[in-house]
Amino acid sequence: MSDTPTNPARRTSLLDKILGRVQPGGEEMAGLLEIKTDEGDQEMAPRQRTSAREMWIESGTTVRTGEGPRLDRMDLDVEAPEDETMILNLGPSHPSTHGVLRVMVELDGETVLRSKPVVGYLHTGMEKTGEELMYHQGSTNVTRMDYLSPFFNELTFSLSVERLLGVEIPPRATWIRMLMSELNRISSHFLWLATNSADIGAINMLVYGWRDREMVLSFFEKVTGLRMNHNYIRPGGVAADLPDGWRDDVLALCEAIPRRMDEYDNLLTGQPILQRRLQGVGPVDADTAIALGLTGPLLRSTGVAWDLRRDMPYLAYDDVDFDVIVGTNGDCWDRYAIRFNEIRESVRIIRQIADMMPSGDFRVQDKKVTPPPRNRIDESMEALIHHFKLYTEGFRVPAGEAYVPVESPRGESGCFIVSDGTSRPYRLHMRAASFANLQALPHLARGSLIADTIAIVSTIDPVLGDVDR
Amino acid sequence: MSEQTPPVEEMTDTAPPSQPATLHGCPTETFFGAEVVHCNRDSYVELCKALKADGYAMPVGVTGVDYLTHPGRSLPESVKAERFEVVVELLSLRQRKRIRVRCQVPGDDPHVPTLFDVWPGVEAHERETYDMFGIRFDGHPDPSRILMPEDWEGHPLRKDYDVGHVPVQFKESPK
């Protein structure tokens, strides 16, 4: 890790080359920082330049070597001679990688020997941005991380802030949050169904999936004003009450979606081509999944019935009935079936929410956290001052730290907030489910064909906005 | 995972316990409803191995916090505050419990041993922590940056790393 300005291994930028600078960034950059980086390539290197431990990760043998010898799943010749293998880039701009995921694979013919996801192409420093924004602005930032499930980002951020504040939100706000979360789970799974089917050649489903997702998003637009990135769930409750006639809209969705799901069952599930593309592809066992920190459908596909909604309930999930869908083999087929049936379970939850939605406030009536209603500002000087103070200074959150995770469509999504007692988070960290789940790729892809790798990436369902943040 | 014990009992309040509690020889506390264990670099790996033996089978995440501009944070008396903290969030599926390990890391030589041999799932999280804070993880199999470009200088989430800004033309715009 030692570093000198003249280290020849250092990469220089194009600007450095043009200006003939030896020191990357110029001389003025030297000595500003305590530790310089020279850790080298993020890419997958040829075997001679790869350490044994790195090979473990890339060939998906971490868990096998960590806990004594295990049966090698594919009895794969990982020690293939260098000149017979080829390192190939998939991405970062590849339609099947769902964003800007770059997967490097080492191939022997068409068989994947090693693989490595290379991420960071969408990194925009949102955690650093989060430290600059006040708490009431924070939900606009976090909602853009996992852009397919924005409500879950807002929810975990709000729950963490509320844990620090110690406020209890009114029941109606809790149930509205649940309603929006479950609808969001449906829209996210619909999009996954669309793209996953397109990846493995069922192009019809691509259109149907997007169409049905739009059905849900138009309800979001009615409630929040936006199709995505809503900033609707905020610390202290939600931004606005549900509009008139929301129950009719929700029940219409609950009518339409199960019928559509039956159609898709006919279209996809019984189809031999789809079955052969997914069954037995990319299996993972429960021990590996737990040791790798996989959550969500990826973990449940291995037979571990772990769902935060049931096992560590938040909001009011105690009061609704639903089943946790689990698989047995941990292969792509199980992950497909789990997401497919989770849509049905979410519809079941939404029906109960529509029945049991309590009346009352949709946000906490705490003047320090919640701005006064618009009409009060015209009549009351005090309300005007409160409004002004709240939006210029923000509200102060007691010093401490909190991590309140939720079960997002992709797994455990959680916001870790450290507060120093001011109105801005001292540290805001998002535990991204996609980021952790992507570690499974070398394990799942080991020994599969390159076409199967596409199906595997697809059933991991990473959202790169969440991975890179 | 078939047999599961009932959920954890009600979380206790944020009031500190009357006498310093310890877990595997490390001070522990309940902090905003979460169980937290404090350790330093020397006891870090031993503590984590012991916690894994206790049933914390899943590494939820590893991250860092730079306390450069927030001195005087609340810590148990026996813990010496350092500039960095490595925060490890763990989950026991069987007991439905979470625990958080906070490891103090000095600012002048930030490095800790890797937990890769305890839980392979910390690999990407440790790379991210290195990338963002410059805390090195000794023995990590692939100690490269993960989110920032390879030739990036500095570690963005450190508190002495400026946010930077894009100049805007509001006042100086040509007339």
Describe the protein.
The complex is a heterodimer of chains A (469) and B (175). By secondary structure, chain A is mostly helical. In chain A, 46% of the residues lie in helices and 10% in strands. In chain A, a hairpin with a 2-residue loop joins strand 4 (233-234) and strand 5 (237-238). The longest helix of chain A is centred in the middle third of the chain and has 29 residues, at 171-199. With 175 residues, chain B is α/β, with parallel strands linked by helices. Chain B has a domain at 21-138: Beta Polymerase, domain 2. In chain B, the strands form two sheets. In chain B, strands 1-2-3-6-5-4 form a six-stranded mixed beta sheet. A two-stranded parallel sheet of chain B has the order 7-8. The longest helix of chain B has 11 residues, at 123-133. In chain B, 41% of the residues are buried. Classes of the chains: A mainly alpha (469), B alpha/beta (175). Chains A and B meet through helix 2, helix 3, helix 4, helix 11 and strand 6 of A and strand 4 and helix 2 of B.
Secondary-structure blueprint:
The complex is a heterodimer of chains A (469) and B (175).
Chain A: H1 14-19, H2 52-58, H3 62-66, E1 86-90, E2 102-108, E3 111-118, H4 126-132, H5 135-142, H6 150-165, H7 171-199, H8 203-224, E4 233-234, E5 237-238, H9 246-269, H10 272-278, H11 286-291, H12 297-300, H13 308-311, H14 332-356, H15 374-379, H16 381-393, E6 400-408, E7 411-419, E8 425-431, H17 433-437, H18 441-445, H19 450-460, H20 464-468
Helix pairs in contact in A: 5-6, 6-7, 7-8, 7-14, 7-19, 8-9, 9-14
Chain B: E1 21-23, E2 26-31, E3 34-40, H1 44-53, E4 58-66, E5 84-92, E6 97-105, E7 111-113, H2 123-133, E8 136-138
Parallel strand pairs in B: 3-6, 7-8
Antiparallel strand pairs in B: 1-2, 2-3, 4-5, 5-6
Features:
heterodimer, A: 469 residues, mainly alpha, Cytochrome-c3 Hydrogenase, chain B, B: 175 residues, alpha/beta, Beta Polymerase, domain 2, 28% strand, globular, disordered N terminus
